[in-house]
What we know:
By secondary structure, the chain is α/β, with parallel strands linked by helices. It has two domains: 8-209, Alpha-Beta Complex (Spore Coat Polysaccharide Biosynthesis Protein SpsA, Chain A), CATH 3.90.550; 213-262. It contains eight helices and nine strands. The chain has helices spanning 18-29, 49-54, 72-80, 101-111, 146-151, 180-189, 213-237, 242-262; strands spanning 8-14, 36-42, 61-65, 87-90, 96-97, 117-126, 131-134, 161-163, 194-206. Strands 1, 2, 3, 4, 5, 6, 7, 8 and 9 form a nine-stranded mixed sheet that branches. Strand 2, helix 2 and strand 3 (61-65) form a beta-alpha-beta unit. Helix 7 packs antiparallel against helix 8. The protein is globular and about 50 Å long.
Amino acid sequence: MQQSNNLISIIMNCHNGEKYLQESINSILSQTYKNWELIFWDNSSSDNSKDIVKSFSDKRIKYFFSNRFCNLYEARNLAVKECKGKYITFLDTDDVWLKDKLDQQINFITKNKNFKIIFSNFYILDELKNTKKIRHKINLPSGDITQNLLNYYSIGILTVFMERSIFDSHKFDKDYNIVGDFDFFIALSQIYKIGSIQKPLSIYRNHSSNYSNKRIKIYIDELKSWIKKNEENFKKKGFKITDQKIYLYKLQLKYFFKSFFKF
């Protein structure tokens, strides 16, 4: 299937991600597309993450250690600086790719030159419920999709595939821990047409850390801040963020009931 041989830079940010790390890296090694580099950014881990990465004797895996811990999106920006590929894609330490993920995406973006950013559907593997299901049952949008994303955000960063050159003028907001992907791709969608592949190409893992009260509280605070910061500007541009306000309300309810029953 391979029609292009451009180098792809894969960014894997890690902070104490040993539990699923070997499986995640194996899903990269199993890719049918072979011309890639893995930029492994170790964000001051204190577990066995480094040993696991070093156990793979593959020169395409490049290990970087940060002497200070920083927010996830600052770490993503730092990892981007080390990328040499024409394209950049992301995989976190608890997620995996299907073996033709890179092949499917580089061929799509090569054939559809009006897109510099693409994404796909993905599966959710829920360890708490022992289920695996497709994340998005609706058709994913393509083109000018800002309002679509504000109505229903469908971009999973583990599925994103984009040109490296975009980062010459755009960066993740380093102050975020959770909504940085959302903020970044909403902003880019106002500048670039974004393409989509309906087929699931990745697997996102839901586990206990995803459901933690602390994480939900951070999510609420960051989304509330994002709405306050952007609402007036979006109104001027003719975009509506009503659905994001509704989603924030649902998050607040979820946090309340989890806290109540825990108490």
